Amino acid sequence: MKPPAPIACAECRHPMYAKTSYSGLRFFAHAPHAPDCEIVPLGESEAHHLLKLELASAARDAGARGP
Length: 67
Known about the structure:
Blueprint: E1 7-8, E2 15-20, E3 26-30, H1 46-61
Antiparallel strand pairs: 1-2, 2-3
């Protein structure tokens, strides 16, 4: 899409953009020169972390309650 949609990280507010992995998975990544962002813990890909957030949100929307 040109120009790119104005998407920003919910944590650090840095711009993000859509990417596709070598295996064909689509995800969003921080644009270059992003600050240190706590949304991406060490050893965990951003795509994996964002998927976990989406699943947690869907579970809450479906009525699940956690500790």
